Amino acid sequence: MATSTVIEVEGLSKRYRLGQLQAGYDTLRDTIAHGVSRIAHRERLPAAEEIWALRDVSFSVEQGEVMGVIGPNGAGKSTLLKILTRITTPTTGNATIRGHVGRLSEIVEFSGVQKFIDTPVKRYSSGMYVRLAFSVAAHLEPEILLVDEVLAVGDAEFQRRCLGRMEELSRHGRTVLFVSHQMQVLARLCDRAILLREGRVVQDGPSEQVVAHYLQAEGGAGSTRSWPDLASAPGGKRVRVRGVRVVDEDGAVVDSVDVRRPVGIEISFTVLRDDVAVFPRIKVVDREGNNAFTTVDANPMWTELPRIGDYVVTAWIPGNLLNEGLYTVEPAVASLGALGFNKLVLQARVPDAVAFHVYDPGEGDTSKGHFAGQLRGAVRPLLEWTSDRR
Fold first, then answer.
1. Residue 340, exposed/middle/buried by CB under 10 A (0-12, 13-18, 19+)?
2. At how many degrees (to 10) do helices 104-111 and 126-139 cross?
3. I want to staple 68 with a disulfide (CB 3.0 to 4.6 A). Which of 127, 186, 189, 257 is the partner?
4. CA neighbor of 207 nearest in space, from 219, 221, 195
5. What is the number of alpha carbons within 13 Å of residue 93 lying toward its C-beta?
6. In the prediction, which pLDDT does 22 show?
């Protein structure tokens, strides 16, 4: 089936004026009085401050596409949805939508059970059942579904059903525009994502790559760093780190990696002196700052002479080990303590040198199976299970 463009956004901008009097519920006399007062004191009124919630936003969405919209608070995500759903009008530009639009948040609002959304359905009255059922029937037949932080309400089961429904809609040619702060879910659900920052589109591409870029920017680290000048490279008189890269199995630099695939941490360094035996070490930290693991290269070659020279080593993290999410890496070159073998001396290290994002494609062949939620922990190994029914 040939695809067609169902959402077309061209040069969309939205300006708000801070401090502006808003329409309210004053009497006609009060409204006239306010207006006369403003005219009489016009010369004393400060100029209203203006902010642009959106600036020259352009993108298109094809029929059947599931697209995510991400960005920090204040990036313009909610304003974009308000324009698309005709709640507000743009200052400049236009948004064309071809098809009936629904918002999943409207289902709960229309049903009138907002304050009971966390209550088990078995406790609903017959009237609540009817209202909720009618709301679902009335709203879940759009060609285009706009979803704004639906996963922020309800329990895990409700979230799972929402995700399943959105996936089903997309398989039947419906278009979904999904706004969320839950990056792991968005990367799994969406084929594509746009990143908004300060009202502008700063990236548009495959969801895994856009999510990885956003999380890395938040954490202040990319997937590659280098120090061509030896004198300014991190380290000391014995060792200098020259470069760090996150690579896939083909040696290409990557921002994101399928949880099932191995990922390599490549470290380039120069050994300047031959007085102690040194060896590489990496520390991998999750987004919450927890140490996922620390490992050293135990290859006997590091005890052999000569040691002075340039080295490139790669630590391979196996697939199905790390959990979903963002990880930062601290590479280092260490030696053993002079007074014993129970202490590491870091001759060169680079805190938070690089970062990468792990995502689950949701095909049911990882340690999560078909579970749509997030398992806790920095690691999530795929274990071998044995079972016996008795």
1. exposed
2. 150
3. 186
4. 195
5. 19
6. 47
